[in-house]
Amino acid sequence: MNPDPARQIGDLVRQHRTFLVAGHYRPDGDVLGCQIALGLALQGLGKTVEVWNSDGLPQKYSFLPQSKLLQKPPAAARDFDAVIAVDTATYERLGVTRDRIASRKALVNMDHHASNERFGDLVWIEPRAAASAELVHHLLRVNNWPVTADIAANLYVGLSTDTGSFQYSSTSPQTLRIAAELLEAGADGAELSRLCYQSFPLRRLRLLQLILASLSLRCEGRVASFWITDEMFRQTGALPEDTENLIDHVRAIDSVVVAALFEAGPGGIVRVSLRSKSPKVSVDAVAAKFGGGGHAAAAGARIQGEPATVEAAVLGAIENALREARL
Ligand SMILES: [Mn+2]
Fold first, then answer.
1. Do 10 and 52 sit in the same domain of this protein?
2. How far is the CA of 31 from the centre of ligand 1 (A)?
3. pLDDT (tens digit, 9 = 90+) per residue, 117-163?
4. 267 and 298: one domain?
5. Residues that place a CB less than 5 A from ion ligand 1
6. Residue 259: CB partners within 8 Å, gap ≥ 6?
7. Is the pLDDT score of 96 beyond 80?
8. What is the phi-psi region of residue 308: left when phi exceeds 0, alpha when psi lies from -120 to 50, beta otherwise?
């Protein structure tokens, strides 16, 4: 990993006093772990730090050490010396946080999404990193900032959740070296895995039951797709945060190469999540056709249109991608 941006961010941190650590809405384990870890690191340097996420902290991640540091943005806008956005591919994905920044001198953008729009004054994108947590870890190490046990646990959760528990092809030797260092720094890997993967509310499993019952398969079972509807949320009491990684259960079917999840949102927007199990099919390329992005194995888009029309267009694009890959 390039040490220069990490040094430049180090210099910027030394020159400023008040910081906002910001991350994308609909937060996942990586962005939350990174935001809290970076917030703790800056606090450890004696900085004044706010850590904001548009959606606040999902209940599921309340186990993250010192998670209370992460707050919803307040009603009134605030001034900062510097804003650091992590794991956030577009400035728009900061959501409400954008409106609560009254002023800032510097905007740092550090991320591992290849589709990152490169907003900001200091941009550090590492598409080969399996998680933004790798960048935060690198930032701390290059600048000799302490990796405390709490920081290590937050970063470990980021690494683990963004790699599907170190299963995806994005998991590199470097990912595992960093994971090892985090365990040495005091992260409890088994306990964090239990909290991440063995601690779901029953309502989420009820939702999964409905999803599996409504699954569609096409292309001889190579493409699986499903909708999550408002009715399913009503029936199960599930919350939007409960849908994170539900698609993995569909991808786990042996014949499936690409899994697609559709969700109709407010304002005629359909949210699409895509997963690929084959290195020959990059779902970020499929998502990009609809203005979205992500990674080769996991991507998404928000598409304006009639649900049935959007579904047909996306499934058509997936079928084309399979055909081009001769699958
Ligand atoms: Mn990430």
1. yes
2. 6
3. 999 999 999 999 999 999 999 999 999 999 999 999 999 999 999 99
4. yes
5. 30, 87, 132, 162
6. 223, 224, 225, 247, 250, 251, 274, 275
7. yes
8. alpha
Give the other-Cβ count within 10 Å of 3's Cβ: 13
Task: Compute the distance from residue 16 Cα to the ligand 1 centre, in Å.
Answer: 26
List the beta strands (DSSP E) in 126-268.
216-218, 223-228, 258-264
Read out DSSP for 22-77?
EE-SS--HHHHHHHHHHHHHHHHTT-EEEEEETT---GGGTTSTTGGGEEPPPSS-
Angle, alpha carbons 85-91-92 (nearest 5°): 130
Range of the domain at 107: 3-197
Ligand 1 centroid to Cα of residue 219, in Å, is 30
Quote the ligand 1 centre to 118 CA distance (angstroms). 16
In a shared domain, residues 126 and 188:
yes
Q: Are residues 155 and 210 in the same domain?
A: no
Token pair recorded at residue 172:
């590199």
∠ CA 321-325-327, rounded to 5°: 95
* pTM recorded for the entire structure: 0.90
Q: Distance from the CA of 327 to the center of ligand 1, in angstroms?
A: 28
47: closest CA among 69, 63, 31?
69
